[in-house]
Amino acid sequence: MSTASARLPEGRYGRASDQRADRTLKIVGAALGGILLVVVGYFGYQYVGQNKISAEVITFKATSDEAVQIHLEVRKDAGADGYCTVRSQAADGAEVGRADFHFSGSDTRIDKVVTLRTTAKGTTAQLLGCHAS
């Protein structure tokens, strides 16, 4: 009687190189996934964690053809200095005014009415963003 071999027939059930390729792909995929998580975390921290000043337009009113009064509510870290950029547009969408308004001091919440000078009658007031200086 002959003894049956415990080895699988060569080439019948795949090659060992396929297993090495699968392992390499898993390692590369895990490394790329880790890098992606680090990049997303970094940009998220920069956007949320480092933004020391934020604001919103509460109300606005065109006081004349040359000015718009804007009520801004600014929230910032104590002692942080910075500025907010606002703009106004005419009824046809053309920008008629843009200015930076600076904020400083130890207050963490500032309510301020600012006047934006315009070249024509402004029908909107839009906060473009705030930045620490």
Structural class by SSE content: alpha+beta
Return the domain count: 2
Helix content: 25-40%
The CATH C-level name of the largest domain is Mainly Beta
Assign the CATH architecture of the largest domain. Sandwich
Descriptive overview:
This protein is of the alpha+beta class. The protein has two domains: 14-50; 53-132, Immunoglobulin-like (Sandwich), CATH 2.60.40. Helix content is 26%, strand content 41%. It has one helix and six strands. The protein has one helix at 16-49, and strands spanning 53-64, 67-76, 82-89, 95-103, 109-117, 126-132. The strands form two sheets. A three-stranded antiparallel β-sheet has the order 1-2-5, with no helix packed on it. It has a three-stranded antiparallel β-sheet with strand order 4-3-6, with no helix packed on it. Strand 3 (82-89) and strand 4 form a beta hairpin. The longest helix has 34 residues, at 16-49. It is elongated and about 105 Å long. The termini are far apart.
In short:
The protein is an alpha+beta fold and 133 residues long. The chain is built from 1 helix and 6 strands. It folds into 2 domains: 37 residues; 80 residues, Immunoglobulin-like.
